[in-house]
Amino acid sequence: MSKELRVVYQEVLSDLMKKDKNVVMLDADLASASGSLKTFESFPNQTVNCGISEANMISAACGMSLVGLKPYVHTFAPFATRRVFDQLYMSGAFSQNAIHIFGSEPGIYAQYNGGTHTSFEDIALTRTLPNAVITSICDAHQFEFVLRSFYKDNKLYYTRSGRKALPDLYTNGTRFELGKWMKHGDALDQVIISHGWMVHECLEACKELKDVTVIDAFSIYPYDNELLMKLSHTSKIMVVEDHNIVGGVGELVARELMIHGYKGEFIHLGIEQQVSEVGDFEFLKQRFGLTKENIISLWNK
Amino acid sequence: METTEFANQIRINTAEMLLERGFGHIGASMSIVETLAVLFNEKMDLTKDYFVLSKGHGGPAYYAALALKGYFDMSELKTLNQNKTILPSHPDRLKVPGAQVTTGSLGQGISQAVGIAKGLKIKEEEGKVYCIIGDGELNEGQVYEALIFASKEKLDNLVIFLDFNKKQLDGTIKQISATIDYKLFFDSLGLSTIRVDGKNCNEIKEGIDKNVSVIILDTIKGQGLPYFESMEYNHHVHFTPELKEILRNEIENLKNE
User: Fold this and answer.
1) What distance in Å separates the CA atoms of residue B16 and residue B246, rounded to the nearest whole number?
2) B108 neighbourhood in chain A, CB within 8 Å
3) At CB < 8 Å, which residues of chain A contact B?
């Protein structure tokens, strides 16, 4: 049984906080949502609940980084990005202050919280932050890697991830590297690129497709420029994401392919400038076509 | 140097750098001169304390204070807002020697300040944080967020100065935003508050010694330069030849004091 991603967050941070008093965890009145209430109890001097003041949380965390702390902040993806974009930009990237932002429940993960709590554009926004590290998580080991990577690094990190468990795609021994995408196959003539929970959906779809390799583009900035150059000789590429077609990994890939003279086919499955609504995960998958069936259908068209 | 003389030096050098550039945030820079003088000449331990100019457009006066304290050469002041300058309108910690916090987008400086203060407490380090906010800046909701955080976290190592110069950009505070009883407002958030004459170095210094959370500085936008005090729109001024002449004269008067 793979670990819940919110448990990974709580466990990895507890481990870091135990070893280093400078690691601090902040939340905007959603600590129970991120599985962190236990952490707040265990580390009263290294946790701060900022209340429902996300703008202050971001900038204050940046202030904490100025005195040498390593702040990890959490709130839901739209409030961690859309709501506080000037704070991310000015207190964070522009000032070169290093904080880690966990934007949870991105895309259709919002479910019953509905459209008001959904972000289909968090990657579009954060991708524009100078010198930031942007990732989208598809398994527990990957999440752990990114969380620990921030600890050793010196940049603003935005990490988009669901809270519930996803099947383990990787292991304790997997070597992750920022700027290197994970290939699930060797052949590169036909690829489907995805990130987050949709990587699993694409792998399912590929069981019914011939000679298609799935690529997990978890590291959105820095992205895998080298691999994209190789892919410019490919014949068919599809990008699948639980994100707006504007500003996500699809556009990133398309731009790079254009620059490198790609002449093949390009298919993009994402959210076509729509708002979300209340529903369970299965319903929302169908609603927006983020399904294995639709991936196969679009691929074969 | 005596603090009132230090204030005079800040004022003269700020006026000169704005005159040199031909335009600038003269109103906002002038009203914080005395406060900067008290902090940089007397109250701050520059090895431990933090200063945050949340109303970042007061940058020119801050730079004058930094130069006078030796963070960089006085000759740099005339490069204010020139191409490739290290002295932009709003303090950039990556460019201005001595500037600890980047500000300019109103409301974010004070948030960073409460974060610094909380961080110092977490690290059990001594060191105080002094932060100046503007009364126009108080329009920004993020300021309120930072204030309630400061209150809840009991940040007694933080002193917030409200530069109550009664004007913002498009007009007076009364015209543009709400009329607030500031002392009542801060007190109601659980932040101890006093009012001082923001033109009087001694009163400011004594105010800081009272160890309150908020000091409301009663100031005038353009403080210390009589013509610019009386100018209706003095947030950001482009100096015409006439205004340049007036400014030159007022600088002369300050030098003769």
Assistant:
1) 12
2) 55, 59, 86-87, 90-91
3) 21-22, 24, 45-46, 48, 50-51, 53, 55-56, 58-64, 66-69, 86-87, 90-91, 94-97
